[in-house]
UniProtKB/TrEMBL annotation:
Species: Sporosarcina oncorhynchi
SUPFAM superfamilies for the chain: Nucleotidylyl transferase
Any matching Pfam family: HIGH_NTase1
Function: Catalyzes the formation of N(4)-acetylcytidine (ac(4)C) at the wobble position of elongator tRNA(Met), using acetate and ATP as substrates. First activates an acetate ion to form acetyladenylate (Ac-AMP) and then transfers the acetyl group to tRNA to form ac(4)C34.
Name this protein carries in UniProt: tRNA(Met) cytidine acetate ligase
E.C. numbers: 6.3.4.-
Length: 406
């Protein structure tokens, strides 16, 4: 069986995601789709709207056949780290291709971008270093360096666009690790990744769906933009009295930790640099809600997303030492599968490049321990029971109980 890989967050899964999975399978001529999905904390430093098990159910009902968890260390990393972890897992799972959505929709321009940087690497790296020293954020420094090369008329992708950026890093990661996995891309349809409003007749962004809910506390407006299964699962989550994940509801827990730990301990948390722990501590003392806290901490040097990653690590207690103990992914954590996915595993199980983990208690690894710990923190803030990683088996197909949250 031939498998194509995709990298997802499904926060939550919407109609555009269904299109992506369907087209990925079609354009690569694959038998199944394998997805690598972030757990309960995401790449932009945010808690997931609903937990990983619920998003697994959404995925299996709408086009994904096998779902593996991207470990916390990669799921909450900046784009190059996120991409490397995901591609390593897809490669280990035996995918012959991977497919990403992009604003470009043309794999050729991404290949050209890689050639451009490779042929002008010294200029590129010097420009990145100089921009960071001037106080430019890392993502903007990368784009500035890339545009310096692109202005020479060499062509390539527009790396100011969020999906293009991730797609570029997926391809760069595959090249770096020496994988034979073949890249492909499809045109992203509908609303821009960052668009935060809903308009009938278009495919909404996950950002717009979440904002709609948090501004109204109602799921009614989002139902036209998500598959039926996603809608049913969101309804079940709400009816069970669980909180949808966002920083406003998580902030009281975060603030408590910041004030308890103090600047000296915060300095050991991953991504905390240059004394920003003092500003974070003072802002937490001064502000009882999340938005004014963030407006106090944000600066030209630190993007909103970068600060949110710091806060995620503070919330979960993820230190530099812990991150240093986690190297390349060392296992494939199975979250769910369809019957076709099960058949693929039966066929390929002996040739997988990493151990397959279906029971958390059966494997010991610092990354897995961190995923379980992060899930417990997430459960505390959303009102779930803790320990779900030990009590939840991989989801099979879309056969699940309507009482799954109670």
């Amino acid at each position: 069986m031939k498998a194509t890989g995709i990298v997802v967050e499904y926060n939550p899964l919407h109609n555009g995601h269904v299109y992506h999975a369907q087209q990925a399978k079609k354009v690569t001529g694959s038998d199944i789709i394998i997805a690598v999905m972030s757990g309960n904390f995401l790449q932009r430093g945010e808690p997931a709207f609903v937990d990983k098990w619920t998003r697994t159910k959404m995925a299996l009902a709408t086009g994904v056949d096998l779902l593996f968890e991207l470990p916390y260390r990669y799921a909450t990393g900046h784009a190059p780290v996120f991409a490397e972890g995901a591609i390593r897992l897809l490669d280990a799972a035996g995918c012959t291709a991977f497919c990403f959505g992009s604003e470009e929709g043309d794999i050729g321009v991404f290949k050209q971008s890689l050639k451009n940087i490779d042929s002008s690497r010294d200029t590129y790296e010097f420009t990145v270093k100089q921009a960071i020293q001037e106080g430019t954020s890392y993502p903007k420094a990368l784009n500035k360096a890339y545009e310096t090369i692109r202005e020479r008329g060499l062509g390539g992708a527009d790396l100011s666009k969020p999906n293009n950026i991730l797609g570029f890093h997926y391809m760069q990661a595959a090249m770096t690790i020496g994988s034979d996995i073949m890249p492909s891309t499809i045109q992203r349809l509908g609303a821009d990744y960052h668009k935060d409003s809903l308009e009938l007749g278009e495919i909404a962004s996950a950002t717009g769906i979440r904002k709609s809910y948090f501004s109204t506390s109602s799921l009614k407006e989002v139902m036209d933009f998500v598959p039926a299964t996603t809608g049913e699962l969101l309804d079940e989550w709400q009816e069970a009295g669980l909180k949808f994940g966002n920083w406003e509801s998580f902030y009281p827990y975060l603030r408590f930790i910041i004030l308890r730990e103090g600047p000296e301990k915060l300095a050991h948390i991953a991504d905390i640099t240059e004394g920003i722990e003092n500003l974070i501590y003072k802002a937490a003392k001064d502000h009882s809600s999340y938005q004014p806290f963030m407006e106090t901490v944000k600066s030209k040097r630190y993007t909103w997303t970068r600060i949110q990653r710091m806060l995620t690590h503070i919330l979960t207690g993820f230190t530099y030492n812990m991150r240093d103990s986690m190297h390349t992914p060392s296992y494939l954590r199975l979250l769910g599968m369809t019957n076709e996915g099960r058949a693929y595993l039966n066929e390929k199980k002996k040739s997988l490049h990493l151990p397959l983990i279906s029971k958390a208690a059966s494997f010991s690894d610092p990354s897995l321990d961190m995923d379980i710990h992060a899930s417990s923190i997430y459960a505390l803030a959303t009102g779930q029971m803790t320990g779900l990683d030990y009590t939840t088996s991989p989801i099979i197909g879309n056969h699940f109980s309507s009482n799954s949250f109670k």
